[in-house]
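User: Predict the complex.
Assistant: Input components as received:
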Amino acid sequence: MTLLIAVLVIALFGPFLTPNDPAAIVGAPGTGPGAGHALGLDYLGRDVLTRVLWGGRSVIWLSLAATALCFAIGLAIGLTAGYAGGIIDPVLMRTVDVVLCFPPLLFFLLVATSVGTSQLTLIVGVAIVLSPGMARIVYSATKETATRGYVEAAVMRGESTPSILRREILPNILPPVIANLGLLVTFSILLIAAVNFLGIGIQPPAANWALMISENRPIVSINVWATLAPAAMLAALTIGVNLVGDAFSHTLGRTETIAEAVATPAGPATPSFSPTEVT
Amino acid sequence: MNDHGPALKVTDLTVVLESGRPVVEHVDLELAPRETLGLVGESGSGKTTTGYALLGFARPGMRIASGEVQIGSESIALHDEKAARRLRGRVVSHVPQDPATSLNPALRVTAALADMRAGGATSSWVTDSLTRVQLPATREFGRRFPHELSGGQQQRVLIACALANEPPLLVLDEPTTGLDVVTQARILDEIARLRDQREVAMVYVSHDLAVVAQVADRIAVMYGGIVVEQGPTSELLSRPRHPYTRGLVSSIPDHRVRKVVRGIPGVAVGIADRPDGCPFAPRCPQVVPACSAGVPELASDGVRSVRCIRADQTPPLSSLENTSGSRPADAATLLSVEGLRVAHHGRGTTVVAAEDISFEVRVGECVALVGESGSGKTTIARAIAGLHPPDGGRMSLGGEELAGAVRGRSRELRRRCQMVFQNPYESLNPRRRVIDEVARPARLLRGMSGRDARAEAERLLERVRLPAGIGRRFPTELSGGERQRIAIARALAAAPSLLICDEITSALDVSVQAAVIELLTELRRDLSLSLVFITHSLPVVASLADRVLILHDGQICEEGSVEQVFQTPRHERTQQLLQAAPAMSDLVETTGGGAQQLPASSR
């Protein structure tokens, strides 16, 4: 928790703490840490500390936006497919499976080459890549909940479908979904970082942790801090988000519910995300 | 054999949680060779824990604090893990509750049996063991895997496994729960036969007093972790001394005697909420302040023992009046079902769950649909409720056509037909307060204002005898019996004329089941409510229903008044069901004489 707050403070308020311009070239490229420049200078001679303080904002807002969008897509698909049944269920879920089959980075290369790179493509792309996992979790939880007596009682008294979804099903599938949200934020941070590192996402000269790692690779032997500092910040951020997510689902006291929802998939496959897939 | 003294003597058995809270306290049991002791109690009574402790085993999170078991001439301290290990299999063995999950799915029958036999097994021994439990001793059968056996066969294999080392004592933990009545009857016969032939003493653990009454010579009744009463079966059942035993006997319905079941008020105590003193005191009709002073001593007269300071005050089982009352023989038809056909449609396959179902329910009448699992009874109920659109046939309620799907029905029809679901743990929205859950149908279907609906909900919660203030709570904080009452209140909130009850008591303890049946009987009388009552239990039918439909393989195989069907069953299937259903009436003689044997009660 403290870890996450520290990283967030640095990322969000960092720009106010430094007087320097992140894009200003202040000295010889690759100068090591010294007076005035605690972490030295990068491959173009810009102040690393300043750039680290600036570089978190885009990482965080991009991943949060992508997560929010992904959450919305996943919830809509999962609820519809899980509750409607009939022909809608297989059509939606097989589509989801197809998207799940694409390697995320390949998908990005495809999008980047066809649409071009912008922050919007980045957000939408990440949301699309990650939403099948969310959709699957929502789907199986919905399927399980839809056969419960209270849902059937609501059907019998003639409640409208949106009302059933909102009042009877949604509140009861939220615990596993929310618990998954922490993981989702982590994945989107990593994915966005990976994409930025490859140069598909945010373009130089913007300050961005992932981009900094990529840019400063050539001078890693001259000023190691130029790559190490942003890498450490990324690591701290993902770990922090993860720990907070865990703590959150524990305090919800819903760990059994999560296990239940995940252990009883109504479809042929369970969500199959692993960090290795992303990095 | 009797010269050996008792086969089993357990003294001062206490099992505690890791926190030190007792689960089972100071249990003393004694068992003669070839005797069967029934250990009876409701959920949370500690009966299963006691059963395990006889093998020197405590489930995770529990610990045997004290206790000594004397078997033959040997005496073993149960809390000594090493010593207790010598007991298992050789001296005591265990037949577990759920046969399907208790057999190793990767072992063939022969291997499973051989695995149990100390010192290796010969093929002739395997053949003998299979024959002993009346299983086919063929090579083909021995090569089967557990999933290729029926539930009854699995249980027989487990019994054979338990007998592998010829222990003098067998602990059976609910060996027939989960099996259908007919299979249950066969297993019970098997157990009785084994006991007579093999000189095995048995401890039979069960929640079902009617089943225990059939197999046990003596019964020990447990409540809240202590044995409250112990004595020979027929004496204990016909003249219970402990008020809990009396309550338990009164709450068991019986299909041979049409009697009014009486529930025990309140909820069985769990491990966490046991009161000081007598654990039954909060539910006891004859409680005095002294009851909460301490757990009463077990008073014994040599044959029977009871743990109650006012045992001599326990009234005899009496005045079990019969339920015949207003039988609306000429009332108008409310629900009419004609030629109903319901199927399950899977991917490319169609399974017909019910076919050619026709029946009528008159105003104020209770019609029971009875059948084993898979007989289609629940599917029929769901079709009437509009949750499973039928493939053919017609249904009408009060003269109005009932559309197959709920969405095609008018608000008035939706209001008049309500359902109570099987599993009380899943039938209430865990995220909604009880009062809102009950008020919703009144608002939606009767057009009440929010305030009126809540007032109506409060009234109904009181009507189903739930304590005041329960409306503010969430269902997860409540017991199964309480939840089922709320589900009934929710159905009543629509002011229905037809109530469909789908196995609503099957997940409940007997004393709670009896209280729910009592409530339904009362509601029927006061609100002239018609019921379609789905159940697999014949005794429950006898205590509640007017007419009964026996279902088999999706078809009605017999139909008639309860008296008629139970007295003179015509269909082979009905006869089987009736024979298999355990009944206590042979053993229990009521002193009040209010109970009527069915032949006398014919209209």
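Confidence is low (pLDDT under 50) at residues 254-279 of chain A.
Let me know if you want any component modeled separately.
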